[in-house]
Write a structure and sequence with these properties.
alpha/beta, Growth Hormone, Chain: A, 4 domains, four-stranded antiparallel sheet, 14 strands
Length: about 800
């Protein structure tokens, strides 16, 4: 090692860590922004991931072959970091313009998939290509020596360690308290500082030119194939395990940040470990053997994680509601993730420096070496991510996918060790690996259906319900369960989505009946989220309704729900007026030209990552644009598993778009439980007499029966669930945070208050602000006085 390298290497490690920190902040911000435009389906997210990794791959291949990088490596690195800062900020400016153009021409099918990919490429490829070029660029500053690859491995590890900090900073601080603009400017500032320090270092150190030519790499193809397999296994496993752990720990934005952070911690630590091992390997032959052993150990580690996630963690005696403080639960979540997935991530991290050592040759261009290995690794990651998310999981499920990943990992060891099969020790090792892999595959169990049903409450709910059906779709896992009291419920990704309990049936039908009974002649309806189909099915009771479009993100849900809830949802799936659109609801609404008399939204709770996009001010404005004159919008809002800040944000955001909106309550045994927000385009006037008169018509007999099933015998009964309007709640909402696309603050508020038990206290707070002097009801004086009597007496059905 030269004096310059010995002197400045610690500084360079810090710079690379800072660069990794900024890269993860960008990644999280871009995913946030692009998902709003192209949707949050598995296809959309697969396109985003492939584009991001594709940019890294292209950059790692391009830089070593570019004349632009012929100068001092530190100056090249400084220019790269400055370029990332520029493009990172430009994304904030260009994405709304490019996204608007995309939404103007977006359609469905293959054509739209290509458009989504084009949008992602325009926004992400320029900065990610530069990110991919950074490690090959700086590696040329490392003088070629037997220890060189170990120092490059340390740089890679430092970069990944910085990524851990970026992941946690973005997920727990920058986006929770600020927004995508603040996060982007922080990341860009980090890049600028790194660029300035790197440029300064270049003036104080000696650079070396790249070799005129590079030795052929054909003899090292097993190494490149193995590191590609390692990348495929790592990203594939990350997708599967994130899905499974997300159900077990709760699908909040914080949980996903913790899972990603643990993956990065393992990669960083493994890179340092692999660099230390590579330093003691004096030739590429020994390094190749070490890489092979690393893959064999990795096979065992993947088996460990698969077994832990399915057969151990679900049975830990953890009750998350024992503490309302999220910090204590986050610590437990971190401990469970470290225990389950740290071993394989460490070995995936070690694979990279070992692959560098195995492919190294005397006199070789360090940039081309690093670029080639890094490109192979990222290319494998792209293929693994796409194959797992778009094909394997929906085709064979998470259990069989994990078995396939086990076999794939073992194959990586065979690829790199098989050329040495004539050596007795290697031959015995390979034979033993077959037996080990077969044993491990046999121990991979499916995730317990109780995890899909009860999620983070599995320890306290195990055995309380009978599992009737289990299905794994492309976007979600679904369970139908029946409780001891006979109630049937549909659970999605560890959280109950709908039940046929009387209080849940009332809420689901209120979402439909409130809008349809108040509207004078509803013809065209859009339902957001199928669930049990009850809200959508309510509209089949109205003879005037000619079309019912339901937007559902997961294709397995409607047929399964219909099988078990056909009585409750009036078999809406097979109704000739019904059309199902399988798409992200926000993406569908932004890309369709259709308008509706009623839009009824029954999405997952806001603490679920991504759901807050269906509660943002911009989304509500899009809803307004798709309502016909006189149209109404109903939105389900739970009070349970929520806190006061979250509910205030939901309501304040709703009133921001619908100043004429109203609030309606559904109680459980007289206590607060959940609500329906109803938006009106025009000044709200609800004629009690007109509504009751319609219920008396023969064609409304199915409506009367449907209302009677949920304990409502008249229009008066239904309207007695009224809670108030904007004028009532404005004092209560003082200081409430508006949920906007740029921050989606609601998912952070909701995830923070998930363990709260405040449904009735929140309801009582709101009830105290309800007034009887400013209400939307008209009709005969007698009926109005009767209804107001409910409010004065504090009664609510």
């Amino acid at each position: 090692m030269s004096n310059d390298q010995r002197k400045y290497l610690p500084v360079l490690l810090l710079l690379f860590a800072a660069s990794g920190c900024s890269a993860l902040i960008y990644e999280i911000v871009w995913y946030h922004m692009l998902a709003l435009a192209i949707g949050s389906t598995a296809i959309s997210l697969g396109i985003l991931l492939a584009t991001y990794m594709g940019g890294l791959c292209l950059g790692s291949l391009w830089l070593p072959r570019s004349r632009w990088a012929a100068g001092h490596p530190l100056r090249t690195y400084a220019a790269i970091e400055a370029g990332i800062a520029v493009f990172g900020v430009l994304v904030l400016v260009l994405l709304p313009l490019v996204g608007g153009a995309y939404l103007a021409v977006a359609a469905h099918g293959l054509e739209n998939m290509l458009l989504r990919g084009l949008l992602a490429a325009i926004c992400m490829l320029p900065p990610t290509i530069l990110m991919g070029a950074s490690l090959p660029a700086i590696s040329r500053w490392i003088e070629e020596s037997p220890e060189a690859t170990s120092r490059i491995g340390l740089l890679y590890g430092a970069n990944t360690a910085g990524a851990v900090l970026g992941c946690l900073a973005a997920g727990f601080y920058l986006l929770r308290l600020y927004n995508v603009f603040a996060a982007t400017f922080v990341a860009a500032a980090i890049n600028v500082v790194v660029a300035a320090v790197s440029w300064w270092l270049a003036t104080r150190s000696v650079g070396k030119a790249a070799p005129a030519s590079a030795p052929g790499l054909t003899g090292h193809w097993p190494v490149y194939v193995t590191i590609a397999i390692s990348g495929a296994g790592a990203l594939g496993a990350e997708i599967v395990w994130t899905r499974l752990l997300g159900m077990l720990l709760g699908s909040t934005v914080y949980v996903f940040s913790i899972i990603l952070a643990v993956f990065l911690i393992g990669l960083a630590g493994g890179s340092a470990l692999g660099a230390w091992v590579a330093r003691g390997l004096r030739d590429s032959d020994r390094a190749r053997v070490a890489l092979g052993w690393c893959q064999l150990l990795l096979t065992a580690a993947v088996g460990w994680s698969a077994w832990m996630i399915s057969s151990s963690l679900p049975y830990w005696p953890v009750d998350p509601v024992l503490s309302s403080s999220p910090w204590f639960n986050f610590q437990i979540d971190m401990a469970r993730c470290l225990w389950a997935i740290l071993p394989p991530t460490v070995l995936w991290g070690a694979s990279f420096p070992l692959a560098l050592a195995a492919a190294a040759e005397p006199g070789q261009d360090q940039g081309r070496l690093v670029g080639g290995v890094y490109a192979a690794n990222t290319l494998g990651a792209i293929l693994g991510a796409l194959a797992v998310s778009l094909a394997l999981v929906p085709w064979i499920g998470t259990q069989q996918t994990q078995k396939a990943l086990l076999i794939l990992t073992a194959a990586g060891a065979w690829v790199v060790l098989a050329p040495k099969y004539r050596e007795r020790a290697v031959a015995i090792t390979l034979a033993a690996s077959i037996a080990l892999t077969a044993i491990l595959v046999g121990y991979v169990e499916p995730i317990p259906p109780e995890v899909i049903a009860f999620g983070r409450r599995v320890a306290t709910s195990m055995g309380k319900a009978k599992i009737l059906h289990v299905a794994e779709g492309r976007n979600s896992s679904v369970v139908i369960s029946r409780w001891d009291d006979g109630a049937t419920q549909i659970d999605v990704n560890g959280h109950v989505e709908a039940t046929n309990e009387p209080y849940d049936m009332k809420l689901q039908r209120m979402v439909g009946h409130l809008a349809a009974l108040i509207h004078p002649n509803p013809r065209k309806v859009l339902g957001i989220g199928f669930g049990a189909g009850v809200s959508a099915g309510t509209f089949t009771r109205y003879a005037s309704v000619q079309s019912i479009t339901v937007c559902e993100i997961e294709p397995v849900i409607p047929p399964i729900s219909t099988r078990f809830f056909a009585k409750e949802d009036y078999d809406v799936l097979h109704n000739p007026r019904t059309r199902i659109m399988y798409d992200d609801a926000r993406h569908y609404l932004l890309t369709t030209a259709d308008k509706y008399d009623i839009i009824a939204s029954d999405p997952l709770d806001v603490f679920v990552k991504g759901t807050a996009a269906l509660y943002s001010a911009e989304y509500f404005e899009a809803v307004k644009r798709h309502l016909n004159p006189g149209g109404t919008f109903t939105l389900y809002v739970p009070l349970y598993e929520s806190d006061t800040k979250t509910v205030k944000s939901e309501l304040a955001t709703f009133f921001e778009a619908f100043p004429n909106g109203t609030v309606w309550a559904n109680t459980l045994n007289g206590e607060g439980y959940d609500m329906v927000f109803m938006g009106h385009l025009d000044q709200t006037r609800i004629d009690i007499d007109a509504a009751q008169e319609r219920l008396g018509r023969p064609e409304f007999a199915p409506v009367v029966e449907s209302l009677r099933d949920i304990g409502i015998s008249s229009a008066m009964d239904l309207f007695s669930t009224y809670m108030g309007n904007k004028a009532d709640f404005t004092p209560w909402l003082a200081g409430a945070e508006i949920n906007r696309d740029r921050d989606l603050r609601l998912q952070y508020l909701g995830g923070w208050g998930i363990n709260s038990n405040l449904a009735d206290p929140i309801y009582r707070e709101m009830l105290a602000f309800r007034r009887v002097v400013d209400h939307p009801f008209t009709g005969s004086p007698e009926h109005v006085r009767m209804l107001l009597g409910y409010f004065v007496g504090g009664r609510l059905r």
